[in-house]
# Entry
Amino acid sequence: MSTSQQPDPKDRPARLTVGVVGAGRVGPALAASLQLAGHRPVAVSGVSDASRRRAERMLPDVPLVPPAEVLARAELVLLTVPDDALPGLVEGLAETGAVRPGQLLVHTSGRYGAKVLDPALRAGALPLALHPAMTFTGTPVDVQRLAGCSFGVTAPEELRLAAEALVIEMGGEPEWIAEEMRPLYHAALALGANHLVTLVAQSMELLREAGVAAPDRMLGPLLGAALDNALRSGDAALTGPVARGDAGTVAAHVAELRRHAPQTVAGYLAMARATADRALAHGLLKPELAEDLLGVLANGTNGAEGDAR
# Structure
């Protein structure tokens, strides 16, 4: 759904008091964004000193209170805690009677859909799963980044319009994800975003080792173009020695990595094999060149195992 398709006024949530349980990087940013849309943050909870400072910076004058008090004060509660902590938090809040009938309870976990909120649903709450597909810094810039950000939305059908309206009010674009597809959806995002950071960090380290004074400046235009090409063209954007079948070049890479950064060899080989498979499947890698290339990758794996022993 595009942000240009505004919901009918009758489907828009009324102006709500907003609470945040878990002042990590996500919760304060979403609450600040909802505040810009006319909602009113009234309470936030945080455990660590860093989370408390973040809440004070992002939501000034909003009181810091225990989680149960957040629920007592707010009509819309954002549960922005780590994935593994979410089920226990929901069960605890429901068992202690903190959840009120008619209260909107929103979690931002990518892994879970709305079912993780079932204990709160049985207590009368209205469960929504709204996961922003964005990395957060814990600073005000996050509010700006929500503009045009896709949200993975899962909710009971009768709450779908309300969930989508909240996302649009935050400047995001709702994308409906079926309950049973949430783990796959989250794995896809982690594969792209989390592993990308690891790959870029490793590349920067290797460039420094090679004597490049400003690896970030060197990589910025290259990676920006590669990402743009990949998003536009998919596998047709594959390039480099693996897609070309340059087995000798790949062998040289493996040898250099083993000499200078052996911890990167396994990742290089795994990504090279995945790239070769995709290049073959899409006709970019010629079969007659693939045999030598795959042989190099197999030998590289054996060599890595030998080093480990």
